[in-house]
Amino acid sequence: xxxxxxxxxxxxxxxxxxxxxxxxxxxxxxxxxxxxxxxxxxxxxxxxxxxxxxxxxxxxxxxxxxxxxxxxxxxxxxxxxxxxxxxxxxxxxxxxxxxxxxxxxxxxxxxxxxxxxxxxxxxxxxxxxxxxxxxxxxxxxxxxxxxxxxxxxxxxxxxxxxxxxxxxxxxxxxxxxxxxxxxxxxxxxxxxxxxxxxxxxxxxxxxxxxxxxxxxxxxxxxxxxxxxxxxxxxxxxxxxxxxxxxxxxxxxxxxxxxxxxxxxxxxxxxxxxxxxxxxxxxxxxxxxxxxxxxxxxxxxxxxxxxxxxxxxxxxxxxxxxxxxxxxxxxxxxxxxxxxxxxxxxxxxxxxxxxxxxxxxxxxxxxxxxxxxxxxxxxxxxxxxxxxxxxxxxxxxxxxxxxxxxxxxxxxxxxxxxxxxxxxxxxxxxxxxxxxxxxxxxxxxxxxxxxxxxxxxxx
Amino acid sequence: xxxxxxxxxxxxxxxxxxxxxxxxxxxxxxxxxxxxxxxxxxxxxxxxxxxxxxxxxxxxxxxxxxxxxxxxxxxxxxxxxxxxxxxxxxxxxxxxxxxxxxxxxxxxxxxxxxxxxxxxxxxxxxxxxxxxxxxxxxxxxxxxxxxxxxxxxxxxxxxxxxxxxxxxxxxxxxxxxxxxxxxxxxxxxxxxxxxxxxxxxxxxxxxxxxxxxxxxxxxxxxxxxxxxxxxxxxxxxxxxxxxxxxxxxxxxxxxxxxxxxxxxxxxxxxxxxxxxxxxxxxxxxxxxxxxxxxxxxxxxxxxxxxxxxxxxxxxxxxxxxxxxxxxxxxxxxxxxxxxxxxxxxxxxxxxxxxxxxxxxxxxxxxxxxxxxxxxxxxxxxxxxxxxxxxxxxxxxxxxxxxxxxxxxxxxxxxxxxxxxxxxxxxxxxxxxxxxxxxxxxxxxxxxxxxxxxxxxxx
Lengths: 458, 458
Known about the structure:
homodimer, 2 domains, six-stranded mixed beta sheet
């Protein structure tokens, strides 16, 4: 057993307790009342990086939620890798569906249950611990490392592009390794070569300037919920195709080799359906389910509200109605253009008697595609062979990590996904969890990966 | 000045304070947590009727919210009138729009601001005080009176039909006078000869069995909000016509004389629009605004909700989405049939991949139409001439008072509307108010009306 393996084993109980401490911080980036908690989480991460032995640990301002930066740059002539993760988490509602409170982590059957356990606090702690194990046992790292942990991934990293543009020298590197993501299963590794992008808007419809009695006014005025329903229904055709003019114009079509690589990965439709309790799937004609979620764009209504939502009946015509919408984008779609197309579509589909406002969220992300045979992917593939005894799948994700696209565009480097979440761990949902076995395996994986990347030639 | 006028003047300050006490009771019938407050309000009404000098004061159980009954039956050979009102109120949300708390009544500029001030607590207190003035000054009433104050009008009086059917002898009378309703304006009286009926349902749409990540599942499954939007949008055509099959089948068409009577009442469209802050009206083609709200049926979505409603963006596909719907019905439409038509429509318009449930609310009401020259209307008209110096309009209301139809069907008697709310008093909305001048005028009106009805020959 190597020294660093021994170090990891000896400290595992302490590392788990530290993860639980980290998970107790309510760092929900999407809710402004948690601003102080975001900063508390940043301070926690900075302190932990310091303890691990990193230099130049800094909490850097972005204009919104801060970034935690640290580096270790004492390997001249060796590559430099930036390791990415995020310490912010999703909101927790519906709260009543949690079996244990989301910010009071519980270990049950070798799993840590808490908001952020999987996405991304448990995951992002792994490289910090791996670096510590190498530094404490060898006194040095095999290559240059920069840590780069952000606090606004779950709101789409609105300030990240400007920040990167303003810190290009500081962030310069040969490769990014992302600790936000996952493996295929407990015994099957995967490399992620594609991510979808993101664009989001809120739609606000206004009718009368106050809620009015449906007996007195019903029939005479436009009901803002009726107007909103018509707008929302106009976004899709009956077969699920998106009907926003221009939406598909720039979409990179799937090539035969893309479809083959996707089809090579086992897919169990019954298990997919059972995992979310649906009887039938539904989506764009002409594509497999995996193609629909990995390589085709979507327009989803994430929330809708207006009028009376309480118990019983209230005969009211409300003053306003609202919806939140987000699109998952694929290669070559420009988020700003998509928002423009949606805005024009809403204007064209607003019925008479209603006023409508479309407000884009700042969180946009381009889609991401990386060559399967990139040297960084080759290094990760070698480590996976050692960790799992298996070749990785070359998959994609339907999710969005703005960071990958931003780093590629601003610094010209790709991002290797090297993270240990699994797909059944209820990411973004009540009862999110993370396996302690993944937490431990990831630490070994990162030690191996850093050694292997030290030999990388770009 | 008559003795009872003098009595009313002398006690006015006390009566106002009593109204404020009554308004402090949070008797929201639509929210089950307020059940004890409903009973508290019933007890308040019973005690007040007792103080006024009524006999046989009783709180009667209906299976849900109780009724308050009282009578004075010492005028043999004279007609018997039942006086109706309700002591329950609407919910108060959105709470943040109230200038003063809804259950902490405030008097500003001669108006009482509170939930229920206008609808119907202020109004229903009026006949109790008028009866007291007559009894305390004359020692008797000019005719037989029954009080009948219910506690579930705002949820559509679900238990009222059964209750009336089970108490026909007790409730027998020659005429009902309703203290729930209003006048045309501060200087123009009106008689109400028509009301719309009511039918209501909730629609619940289910997709996945938990909220899921829109990146992982977006594109592969039906989003329950998309399904709901399609269902809701299918209810109306672009011109506002209701597209539910069978919905208009039984509607009593407007006759020329109906349209003339409606057109004879002044209507200021600019003022109507300004009162609710809309730039344009919208409704069924071929009808005037007043015809649309008084004599044509509607289908309104009163509330919609599903998914994330908080600040910012959350990229989720929710498990469920919901809507509350109510219809205003006109003469000859059967509420049960309408609910059946809606249910069938929803089934026919449910897109693939979603499960939908339609749950009718118990609160249904048939529409109501009364002859304009009924002796009860003639008596009320005489009093209005005296109170206002003007002939009343013969109008209708777009609202629903299940009581009128139920009494007509069960006991064969019509209901004369004799109440003093005005249309600008934000009924069912934040900042509901009632004018103290209406409160005082109504008391005189009821004393005059009871004298006049004593001479009525059916």
